[in-house]
Design brief:
This protein is of the alpha/beta class and 312 residues long. It has 2 domains: 93 residues, Immunoglobulin-like, CATH 2.60.40; 191 residues, von Willebrand factor, type A domain (Rossmann fold). Helix content is 29%, strand content 27%. It is built from 7 helices and 13 strands. The strands form 2 sheets. Strands 1-12-3-4-11-2-13 form a 7-stranded mixed β-sheet, with no helix packed on it. The radius of gyration is 22 Å and the shape is elongated.
């Protein structure tokens, strides 16, 4: 892993409590010597469009009322990159047609410049097409997804292996998005122990990955939902990674929920691929509880600072 990649992946961002827009303020003060801090910033205009010509001299950071000049404001043109996992395991036959149609609509709604990979998780995780912007290849891969009747789904194993791939990617200049098109049917993952789970979570968080799950939830004859493990993992990991979870009571929901998700990812891609990495030196007396504010001299600009670059 290169030094530059290590630096970018280990950005220690401050918790930005408040972002303010200040125009034409006659600031004075000094910058105290302390450890350099960094965080991501998205700048948008009044219409919500990215502002891509910001300069370091237009941005300041205030810590507990004490001003620090920005040491660097580096443009980061990191796109979203999407990995889709499809549950084609034992429970998939009644819903797979809806999954496939939902994925076709997902691809149609997603910006054409976003790379997408398609993989299945029935029996074991298996890629059908690697990351590409070729929509024909992607649609062909979706069209041939068939049920794997010899194995349960491997929801957690798929996430573990994806986290491992992200960890080994030395470039890593993108925001990974994982989309689980799933059911709460039988689960056959083997990496359910505490250590592999913790390792997986550390890698997902370190690489700024977000998990979005759309899961059809079968119910038993007693009316009780099955597949509690996958549902819990999907909800908890989605929350921790700033992703999302939707449980579908009807498989038709794949046809509407997946294109809706694609539109939201497209919005985030437009903004997140036009961010900046801001570095500054906070005052020596700054603490973890310090109130940090971001300010700019440019009028009409809205700023959204984050620690990991993942915008809501």
């Amino acid at each position: 892993m290169t030094a530059e990649t290590t630096r970018r992946r280990s950005v220690v961002g401050v918790l930005v409590a408040l972002a303010l827009i200040v125009s034409g303020a006659p600031w004075t003060g000094h910058v105290a010597s302390a450890q350099t801090q960094s965080f991501f910033v998205s700048f948008t205009d009044g219409a919500g469009a990215p502002v891509t010509d910001m300069s370091r001299t237009e941005v300041f950071v205030e810590t507990d009322g004490e001003r620090s000049e920005a040491l660097g404001l580096e443009p980061l043109r990191w796109p979203l990159r999407v990995t889709v996992f499809v549950d084609n395991g034992l429970a998939s036959p009644p819903v797979l047609d809806h999954m496939r149609e939902g994925l076709r609509r997902f691809l149609d709604a997603l910006p054409a410049d976003i790379e997408v990979a398609i993989a299945t998780i029935g029996g074991r995780p298996q890629f059908r097409v690697r990351h590409t912007t070729d929509r024909m290849d992607l649609e062909d891969a979706v069209g041939v997804i068939a049920p794997e009747m010899d194995g349960a789904a491997s929801f957690l194993d798929a996430l573990y292996e994806e986290a491992e791939r992200l960890h080994e990617d030395e470039a890593g200049e993108y925001f990974p998005v994982i989309v689980m098109v799933a059911t709460n049917g039988p689960e056959g993952s083997t990496r359910v122990r505490e250590r592999p789970f913790r390792e997986m979570m550390e890698r997902l968080i370190a690489n700024r990955a977000a998990l979005h799950t759309r899961m059809y939830t079968f119910t038993s004859v007693t009316g009780v939902k099955q597949g509690g493990d996958q549902m819990r993992w999907a909800m908890d990991i989605g929350r921790v990674t700033a992703g999302s979870y939707d449980g579908l009571s009807s498989a038709i929901g794949f046809r509407t929920q997946l294109p809706d998700l694609a539109e939201d990812l497209g919005r985030k891609h437009r903004l997140m691929s036009n961010q900046y990495l801001l570095t500054y030196t906070p005052p020596e007396n700054a603490t973890a509880q310090s109130v940090v504010r971001l300010l700019t001299t440019r009028a009409g600009v809205r700023m959204t600072p984050t620690r990991d670059g993942k915008l809501p």
